[in-house]
Amino acid sequence: MKTLLTGGSGFVGAAVLRKLLDAGHEVRALVRPASDRRNLADLPVEVVTGDLNDAASLQRAVSGCSNLFHVAADYRLWVREPESIYRTNVQGTRHLMRAALEAGVSRVVYTSSVATLGISPDRRPATETTPAGEADMIGHYKRSKYLAERAVLDFVREAGAPIVIVNPSTPMGPRDIKPTPTGRIVLDMLRRRMPAYVETGLNVVHVDDVAEGHLLAHEKGKPGERYILGGENLSLKAILDAIAGISGVPAPGIRIPHDVVLPLAWSAEQFAKLTGVEPFATVDGIRMARKFMYFSHEKAARELGYNPRPAREAMAAAIAWFRENGYC
After folding, report:
1. 123: which DSSP letter?
2. 196 Cβ partners below 8 Å, 6+ apart?
């Protein structure tokens, strides 16, 4: 049972890779030539080089595979050239789905994001059916993932593609080598670089539970259906307090209004455009923070048997990994 995995060198992909190996899959991992391969070290995996923007490399990678887990994505809240995010997340996904269909792949799990879903205005957890349109997508990352998910659903409707969609929430845990924007929340706390916070909320989940949800979707999910792979809904203040309790690093006690942070984020972005240094805050990030991004994983629990652990365990695992690997 040969399985192609994209994004295996990244945070979520590395967790999915380990679950696939544990489940007995023969894994072929597609990585870009310049990818950091530390998450692949010493694992029994076939590594092939390619790029989501190179259709020929995708055709070669998927040849002979029965399964596809498309986890790779450009996950950045700020980028100097936004077109690159759309090329990877939207056009690259189209290239890969087309290659999978032509190769006769029998099962595909596509990693989307809760970023594509609607948000309940009253802080009630949103579900897979909470309404959302392209106009609701704040920032290039969210919009690119929304458009990519639409493209995947088109393949299901028009070609009968056997694609199951999973929508992870806010994963934390080990092997966040980059780190992701989520990991930077933990890392900024550990480095004492978070003097204040804004009022918002997130759904925190252990990255290994997200990975387990991918395998459950492969085994039990229905083509064309979406499944939220989430954990606990927590305010940012509660998250920071929990990180403080686990790490011993004091949590920030000052809450800054969104309207105060917005001009600071705008200035940081202008500086970033000149220097190429990633801004400490982004306008899109602050705009998103006005909403409490709470979600329900009830459908995944009911239909797939998905059962995530407490969010505190995800934070503890992230803290331990960052410390053990010299990030702070």
Report:
1. S
2. 252, 254, 255, 256
Residues 6 or more apart whose CB falls under 8 angstroms from that of 54 comprise 95
* Burial class of residue 269 in the structure, from the number of CB atoms within 10 Å of its CB (0-12 exposed, 13-18 middle, 19+ buried): middle
Residues belonging to the chain: 328
DSSP 3-state helix, strand, coil percentages of the chain (rounded to 5)? 45, 15, 35
Taking Cα atoms as reference points, which of 122, 113, 244 lies closest to residue 185? Answer: 244
For the chain (328 residues), the mean pLDDT of every run of 10, in chain order, is 95 98 98 94 96 96 97 83 92 97 97 94 94 89 95 96 97 96 94 90 98 98 98 97 97 82 68 70 68 94 98 98 96
pTM over 0.85: yes
Question: Which among 323, 125, 300, 144 has a CA at the least distance from the CA of 243?
Answer: 323
Sign of dihedral through CA atoms 65, 89, 41, 164?
negative
Regarding the domain delimited by 2-172+206-230+295-309, which CATH topology (the fold level of the hierarchy) does it fall under?
Rossmann fold (3.40.50)
| pLDDT score at 307 | 98
